[in-house]
């Protein structure tokens, strides 16, 4: 079942349950997916759907950081709820140790010797973890591993 079909079903369920918050988030996700379909001119592949979901999740996490700086608890609670809803559509996230193992395996695979090989490692690693791990975390793990070589 495509993401769009899943969102349509979940939207109906949220309407019946009168869950306005969930309905609003699902509508935003559906709109984002539809806009990308129109922009690309075809139905989205699962990878393209994952890109849309990742972008939406990242936007909410950035908003959360801004609201925390401003000490706006009402907005923090609202965005945390939105993050939970969006995260439910994402694939299972990799644990930190799994990401570290992938980083080390990729470093060995590409033959990285120093921090100068950062781009080469990230280029090989990101397709493997796309949507399954936070890019910032991956970045930090790669820097740490390359520094310790």
Describe this structure in words.
With 149 residues, the chain is mostly helical. It folds into 2 domains: 3-87, Uncharacterised protein YqeY/AIM41, N-terminal domain (Hypothetical Protein Yqey, Chain: A, domain1); 96-147, Arc Repressor Mutant, subunit A, CATH 1.10.10.410. The chain contains 7 helices and no strands. The protein has helices at residues 3-17, 20-40, 46-69, 73-87, 96-110, 118-129, 135-147. Helix 6 packs antiparallel against helix 7 (135-147). The protein is globular, with a radius of gyration of 18 Å. The protein starts with a helix and ends with a helix. 19% of the residues are buried.
SSE inventory with pairings:
Blueprint: H1 3-17, H2 20-40, H3 46-69, H4 73-87, H5 96-110, H6 118-129, H7 135-147
Shape estimate = globular
Query: How many DSSP helices?
Result: 7
How many separate structural domains?
A: 2
Mean pLDDT across all residues, rounded? 90
Q: Describe the biggest sheet? A: none
- N-to-C series of helices and strands: HHHHHHH
CATH superfamily of the largest domain, please?
Uncharacterised protein YqeY/AIM41, N-terminal domain
What are the segments in which pLDDT stays under 50 over at least 5 consecutive residues? Answer: none
State the oligomer: single chain
Number of strands: 0
The helical percent reads over 70%
């Amino acid at each position: 079942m495509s993401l769009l079909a899943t969102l349509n079903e979940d939207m109906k369920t949220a309407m019946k349950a009168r869950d306005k918050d969930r309905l609003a988030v699902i509508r935003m996700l559906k709109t984002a997916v539809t806009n990308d379909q129109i922009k690309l001119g075809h139905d989205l592949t699962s990878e393209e759907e994952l890109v849309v979901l990742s972008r939406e999740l990242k936007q909410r996490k950035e908003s959360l950081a801004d609201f925390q700086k401003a000490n706006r608890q009402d907005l923090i609670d609202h965005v945390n709820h939105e993050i939970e809803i969006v995260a439910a559509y994402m694939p299972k996230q990799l644990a930190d140790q799994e990401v570290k193992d992938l980083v080390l395996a990729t470093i060995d695979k590409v033959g990285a010797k120093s921090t100068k090989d950062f781009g080469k490692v990230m280029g090989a690693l990101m397709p493997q973890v796309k949507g399954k791990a936070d890019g910032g975390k991956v970045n930090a793990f790669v820097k740490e591993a390359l520094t310790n070589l």
